[in-house]
Amino acid sequence: MKLTALIRRWFGRLRFKSKVIAIFLPLLIISLLILGALSSHLFSRSLIERTTSNVADESQLILSRTDYILRSAETAANIMVTNINRLYESYPAVQAVPLEQFRFANLMQSRLSIDLSIFREVDAAVFVGKDGTVYSSYTSGGEEEEKGIAASGMLDTVREAGSYGNSHWFGMEKRNVLTSDPDSPVLTLGKMVINIDTGEPLGTLFLMVKEAQLSAFLQSSDPAASKAYYFVDEHKRVVAAADKSSLLQPIAPSMAARIGERERSDRAASYSYKDDGNLVTVSRFGPMDWELINVVSLKLLTADVQQNVRLTALVGALCLIFSLFGANFLSRMVASPLERLTRAMRQVVSGDLRPVVAARTEDEIGTIAEAFNFMVGRVRELLNKVTEEQKRKREYELALISAQIKPHFLYNTLDTIYVLNELDRNEEARDTTKALADFYRMVLNKGRELIILEKEARITDDYLAIMQIRYPDVFRYEIDIPAELSGTPIPKLSLQPLVENAIYHGLKKKGSKGFIRIQAGITGGKVLVQVTDNGIGMDEERIEAIMSGYSPEEETRSIGTYSVQQRLNLYFGEEYGLTVRSVVDEGTVVELSLPMLGTEKRDKQDVQGDDR
Questions:
Q1: Where are the alpha helices (DSSP H) in 288-422?
Q2: One Pfam annotation, family name (predicted)?
């Protein structure tokens, strides 16, 4: 604890530049060391993984090509067996006539040569008849070769391999018989030839594949990182390799032991391991019980990594030098602006929203200063706006209350009811009384300001029913609200001021009976409610006066329409409101845009859906 306190006290007395050096210099050195070690490790691992992946892909290509060569040899053997049967059918008495024997030998050699021209993977073909006669695709050694073949035991091995249709592969080896080039190792395929009709053995067919056919694909495709490929057989001898000096030689004992141990414990198709500074990859070749081995020098692979480590050390030394100069510059460029910004922030915390910080630079400090100035100014604007909106909302609420209890409408309606009773028009008086009661019950309801469109249409319907009784010769009306739009939220008494304006300022001055239609629909993702009348209409100047809330001649009309527009903006946003279209002597269309149910900005719980 005492040591920690001493370090803190010492650190607190340092200047900003010294603090920067004391903190970042060790961090920079440690970071560079970690970066060098980590980059060396990751880069080396990445190289090894990439090399392993490339080797695996190349190995699969080599194995596929090798398998193709062996299958081609087997296919060639099958075709040659068929052709040999046909020759024996053409010369059934070949053993009896010497001339026929000579002709048969020429035809057999020609047939074998033709077949080999089709299967170029096979180097040579030899057919040994049941009497020991040798027919080859190349110039044979005569009786010495016949004796050599008999002494090699290969004929007996093929006969013991099984019945017709089976092939027997002899391992890679050099020999003086059954080969066109005694100096080249060959892989030999032996197959019994049986008379198809009688089942009598006709002889033995041998096909030879040179090692060069297999090693032609063992070269690496990446010259920058040479990789040695070679095949080893079950005896751990090299049977195919680009390096001819290693052919038919045993592999290193450590590698042979490692492969044998892995064969006993794991039969995976491919695996890799590190051995004596090399990356060794082993891929199994099942058809011949071989392994394809690839050896890559890790030193060559990681040569670039060492160069990167040296480059990192050099860059680190340069960074240390520049960090000393940067610490002094940073203390001058950062400390002073931060102190000014801190003082201004403290003033804001105390409640003073007037401080402004001079942004003298265009770097992050200058950006922070500009953002701070903008934030303070924005806070002042928001506070003023909130105060103004609260004031406006209160004014609209008061205007709504006054509009909800208009005495002249109540008095005129009661007078109408009285006159209807005097005239014994009791049913009309009853309907008027019911409509008046429904209207004021919903208007004076103490629920929330927002109601659903269905309720607003019902309020408007009650109002129009009363007005139609009062002015039966002035207008008729129609309300069409689709059922799927009945739940749309709308501020209370949004339609009543509009239809009132249509009656008093549009239809009463018309001189003939007019029409009011209220309908709703969906356009552009919004609910549009239209109030249409065929009254006297109005010009653009009057429309602008109404929408601005100022009209000296018709103050009531202007306040009512303007109040609806402002309340729609207040509750739903500026993108919703009123649109007025009118043509003089033709009529007026007032259109309210409302949010669709589920997209409104106020919660559904704020919508009054029932008047109980």
A1: 298-301, 303-349, 364-404, 407-422
A2: HATPase_c
Q: Facing residues of 520 across strands?
A: 529
Mean pLDDT by 10 residues, the chain (612 residues): 75 65 72 71 73 82 91 91 87 66 85 88 90 83 78 85 76 87 90 85 90 82 65 91 88 86 77 82 88 83 68 74 69 67 76 70 70 78 79 62 59 76 79 80 68 90 86 90 92 87 87 92 92 91 79 52 82 89 92 78 49 38
Same-domain pairing of 434 and 369: no
- Identify which of 282, 279, 240 has the alpha carbon closest to the alpha carbon of residue 257: 282
Rounded distance between C-alpha atoms, residue 600 and residue 491, angstroms = 12
Domain count, the chain: 3
- Give the C-alpha separation, 443 to 451, whole Å: 11
pTM for the predicted model, two decimal places: 0.48
Do 419 and 386 lie in one domain? The reply is: no
**Whether residue 489 sits in one domain with residue 452:** yes
Same domain? 182 vs 254: yes
Do 505 and 394 sit in the same domain of this protein? Answer: no
Task: Please check whether residue 319 lies inside any domain of the structure.
Answer: no
Residue 387's contacts (CB-CB under 8 Å, 6 or more residues apart) are none
- 334 in a structural domain: no
Distances (CA, A) of 245 to 110, 184, 239, 251, 295: 36, 12, 11, 12, 16
